[in-house]
Amino acid sequence: MKKGKRVLVVGSGGREHALAWALARAAEVERVYVAPGNGGTTWPPSPEAPDLQPRAPARSVPIRPDDIQTLIDFAREQAIDLTVVGPETPLAHGIVDAFQAAGLRIFGPTRAAARIETSKAFAKALMRACGVPTPDYAVFHRFEEARAYLRAHPGPVVVKASGLAGGKGAFVCDTTEEAEEALHRLMRERIFGEAGDTVVIEERLYGSELSMLALSDGRMVKPLLPARDHKRLMDGDRGPNTGGMGAYAPVPEVGPDAVERVVQQIMMPVLDALARQGTPFVGVLYAGLMWTASGPFVLEFNARFGDPEAQAILPLLETDGLEALEACLEGRLEDLSLRWRPGACVTVVLASPGYPGPVPEGLPISGLEDAAAQEGVLVFHAGTRREGAQLVTAGGRVLAVSAIGPDLPGAAARAYAAVERIHFEGMSFRRDIGRVPVRSL
Ligand SMILES: Nc1ncnc2c1ncn2[C@@H]1O[C@H](COP(=O)(O)OP(=O)(O)O)[C@@H](O)[C@H]1O
Ligand SMILES: [Mg+2]
């Protein structure tokens, strides 16, 4: 019998749990490791894997995502066949280049291709050069020049750190005063260090936000289901920004024509441009879009799966996850057909008290088995760890409760019924994920 494949997932959040789950269901996968993983990324094999259960076992291994050399050593020792990168930081540090140089297989873009995410100034210039719709903008390296620009261009703008700022580097401003304040914090106080030494000031757009993710083999893309995430802490998109409080997929108002338009007008021109520069993009290309009265505009690109979008998209993927990723690496995405379960998936994030500020750790969590036993429900761990037999909180976003249902309201009903069974002190979550009326684009 052919030896099964071993897969290593890099990262520790709900996204990585969802990736590990999807890969542990792939036909050829024998074992999954998650580095460093969390309290939910270790499980036994389940040969008879009933619906939605992973078949292959998984185990957390205590290696940090940016400890690239130790990850390479581990991949060699354990004869890992494929490494999959969850978060952006290791991509920015060149994990893909380093694995490739070591002769190891890894899914994700090289450091140069990942600039589409790690430098908003680079992404903007690329989009402008290839005619991809994106808000008008200017780039600055000096505070005084940026401030002068703001004063000469009154009106609503968005001020963004060009570099990686953990999803907190964009300031949506109503007034010039607010924009100057944001500029001050980025360029003078340097709250994100060198990530804010270059800023992008862009026109503020109004419309409907949406995430379009696609698998890319460097030459073409296969779009995943359109998704919508919810960055604000409170219902109705109020309160501070977070890493993401929930998501759903697909987005009912985004039909096949809209998806095709995004592929043709946005994804393909960017992919072609990166290939022409000699830095083809292989991995997940994620376009954060604002759909306005005149169509879709790109607010940003990410070079990886979104969190929590992955927890809403991957449960619906019917195609073998390993086959899909391997098709990207082997440049044969053209032959891959992505199949999806019918219906929708809603993901509700359960956060620690105080999130997105400082949070306590070690709060005991109860009710998970009961929640996970509900029909169509998957509980992905994010900030959890095991203390003996007890599962406790270990971060701001603690769990991502996903539920598949016949449609969006059905999936939301199941997700919230499962959420009600889970408890930890001060648990907070949004109550409106997937419960909004369908809008038009
Ligand atoms: N030009 C824009 N007009 C309106 N809202 C914007 C604009 N750019 C960003 N935003 C808002 O700010 C959020 C964060 O911006 P984004 O560019 O995605 O940066 P990041 O995810 O790195 O923080 C977006 O999800 C969107 O809600
Ligand atoms: Mg974003």
Topology:
Blueprint: E1 5-11, H1 14-24, E2 29-36, E3 58-60, H2 68-77, E4 82-85, H3 88-92, H4 95-101, E5 106-107, H5 115-118, H6 120-129, E6 137-140, H7 143-152, E7 157-161, E8 170-173, H8 176-188, E9 199-203, E10 208-217, E11 221-223, E12 228-229, E13 232-234, E14 238-241, E15 246-249, H9 256-276, E16 282-292, E17 295-302, H10 309-313, H11 321-329, E18 344-351, H12 368-372, E19 377-381, E20 384-387, E21 390-393, E22 397-405, H13 408-419
Parallel strand pairs: 1-2, 1-4, 2-3, 4-5
Antiparallel strand pairs: 6-9, 7-8, 7-9, 10-11, 10-16, 12-15, 13-14, 15-18, 16-17, 18-22, 19-22, 20-21
Helix pairs in contact: 7-8
Residues 135, 158, 160, 167, 169-170, 172, 202-205, 209, 231, 288, 290, 299-300 line the site of adenosine-5'-diphosphate.
Q: Can you give me a brief rundown of this structure?
A:
With about 450 residues, this protein is of the alpha+beta class. The protein is built from 13 helices and 22 strands.
Tell me what the structure shows.
The protein has 441 residues and is an alpha+beta fold. The protein has three domains: 5-107, 3-Layer(aba) Sandwich (Rossmann fold), CATH 3.40.50; 136-203, 2-Layer Sandwich (Dna Ligase, domain 1), CATH 3.30.1490.20; 208-419, 2-Layer Sandwich (D-amino Acid Aminotransferase, Chain A, domain 1), CATH 3.30.470.20. Helices cover 28% and strands 27% of the residues. The chain has 13 helices and 22 strands. It has helices at residues 14-24, 68-77, 88-92, 95-101, 115-118, 120-129, 143-152, 176-188, 256-276, 309-313, 321-329, 368-372, 408-419, and strands spanning 5-11, 29-36, 58-60, 82-85, 106-107, 137-140, 157-161, 170-173, 199-203, 208-217, 221-223, 228-229, 232-234, 238-241, 246-249, 282-292, 295-302, 344-351, 377-381, 384-387, 390-393, 397-405. It has a five-stranded parallel sheet with strand order 3-2-1-4-5, with helices on both faces. Helix 7 packs antiparallel against helix 8. Magnesium ion is lined by residues 288, 300.
